[in-house]
């Protein structure tokens, strides 16, 4: 432990986030108003809660490094030092090179071309529950949809989708040793697929990643494996929780269901407001590279800094009536998918899956509401916001 002179702190302020992860927003407001740069002993990091500060941190990889934030983790939780970092954990200039190469394969056209297949998957999932008048939004739709899409996009057997979900759930959980084993298992799995595609390319993303190059520079195998891991985990968790959070929020605001059903063109705006109101990825992780002052606090080199996207998106200095869900909010410059060089590379896929899921749900079903006896339980993660289950009733 370094010798940082931490500010006086009430441990219960951030401990309450752990105690009530479904409602961290009151604590966020206290942080913004009283301790905008606050050292959390529970999370072993500086919580950055105001919009402007959060944006400044995530936009400055020189002062606040993604790569060094991983190096500072306990040895047992780090990936193999010989393994390539994902886009999340690299800094410029290598981050820029990686992203440029990946963008050659993971193109807007690739994403847009998935729309018909996503629509088929959503209808197929809803067909299974239509006779019963009940659906668990998470188990029956939000979980399987992105897993199936990612499996098909990567070109891996669909029968492995439950294994994908298992790995993804472990990696976003606090279970350190299990997380390490899951990363190893994922690497081994994807390595065999990559080797197959080297011998026999197919029309899938892994084959495209293998062939992508800029001026003779190709992605290494380790970098391809790291992107497969990132797409599986981040792509699954973001889409699953965005869909679940949308339905949870609409159930709390029944008039939104009616407005959207009357005018499906409002769905994209509704999705953006859900991203702001219930941000799927609540916080990020950076490391200070040098001693620096922020919000009146001295942050030492090597200290972990946690920009809280979920707090920034409810900052009253940026959003009018920030605690209210407003379907017609304009402007809505949230940072729910990050900002700058680390803007979520899979955000367009998450938006597309969520838009199509909502369009089909609102077209096929009426009278959707949460089952009154259902209890909400937060997913097993301190940085993802979502529920494990969301039973709802509907009429055909």
UniProtKB/TrEMBL annotation:
Similarity field: Belongs to the cytochrome P450 family.
One MF term in GO for this entry? oxidoreductase activity, acting on paired donors, with incorporation or reduction of molecular oxygen
Name of the protein in its database record:
Putative cytochrome P450 YjiB
Give the matching CDD domains. P450_EryK-like
What PANTHER family does the record tag this protein with? CYTOCHROME P450 YJIB-RELATED, P450, PUTATIVE (EUROFUNG)-RELATED
Keywords attached to this Swiss-Prot or TrEMBL record, sorted alphabetically, are:
Heme, Iron, Metal-binding, Monooxygenase, Oxidoreductase
Q: What is the lineage of its organism?
A: Bacteria, Bacillati, Chloroflexota, Ktedonobacteria, Ktedonobacterales
Q: Does the keyword Heme apply?
A: yes
Origin superkingdom: Bacteria
Q: Which InterPro entries match?
A: Cyt_P450 (IPR001128), Cyt_P450_B (IPR002397), Cyt_P450_CS (IPR017972), Cyt_P450_sf (IPR036396)
Entry-linked Pfam families:
p450 (PF00067)
């Amino acid at each position: 432990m370094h010798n940082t002179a931490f500010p006086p702190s009430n441990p219960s302020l951030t401990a309450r986030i752990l105690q009530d992860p479904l409602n961290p927003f009151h604590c966020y407001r206290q942080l913004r108003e009283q301790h905008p740069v606050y050292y959390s002993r529970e999370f072993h990091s500086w919580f950055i809660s105001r919009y402007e500060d959060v944006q400044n941190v995530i936009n400055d990889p020189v002062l606040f490094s993604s790569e060094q934030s991983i190096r500072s983790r306990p040895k047992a939780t780090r990936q193999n030092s010989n393994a390539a970092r994902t886009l999340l954990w690299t800094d410029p200039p290598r981050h820029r090179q990686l992203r440029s190469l990946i963008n050659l394969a993971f193109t807007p056209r690739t994403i847009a071309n998935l729309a018909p297949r996503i629509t088929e998957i959503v209808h197929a999932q809803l067909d299974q529950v239509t006779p019963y008048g009940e659906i668990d939004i998470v188990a029956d739709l939000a979980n399987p949809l992105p897993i199936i899409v990612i499996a098909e996009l990567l070109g891996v057997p669909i029968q492995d989708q439950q294994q994908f979900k298992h790995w993804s759930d472990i990696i976003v959980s606090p279970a350190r040793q299990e997380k390490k084993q899951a990363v190893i298992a994922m690497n081994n799995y994807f390595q065999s697929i990559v080797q197959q595609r080297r011998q026999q390319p197919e029309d899938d993303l892994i084959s495209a990643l293998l062939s992508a190059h800029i001026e003779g520079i190709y992605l290494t195998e380790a970098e391809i494996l790291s992107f497969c891991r990132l797409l599986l985990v981040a792509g699954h968790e973001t889409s699953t929780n965005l869909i679940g959070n949308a339905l949870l929020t609409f159930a709390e605001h029944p008039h939104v269901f009616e407005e959207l059903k009357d005018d499906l063109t409002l769905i994209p705006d509704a999705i953006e407001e859900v991203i702001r109101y219930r941000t799927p990825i609540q916080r990020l992780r950076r490391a200070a590279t040098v001693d620096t002052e922020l919000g009146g606090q001295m942050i030492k080199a090597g200290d972990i800094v946690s920009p809280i996207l979920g707090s920034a998106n409810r900052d009253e200095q940026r959003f009018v009536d920030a605690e209210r869900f407003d379907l017609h909010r304009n402007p809505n410059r949230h940072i729910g998918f990050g900002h700058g060089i680390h803007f979520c590379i899979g955000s367009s896929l998450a938006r597309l899956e969520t838009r199509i899921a909502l369009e089909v749900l609102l077209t096929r079903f009426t009278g959707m509401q949460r089952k009154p006896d259902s209890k909400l339980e937060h997913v097993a993660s301190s940085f993802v916001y979502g529920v494990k289950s969301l039973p709802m009733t509907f009429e055909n």
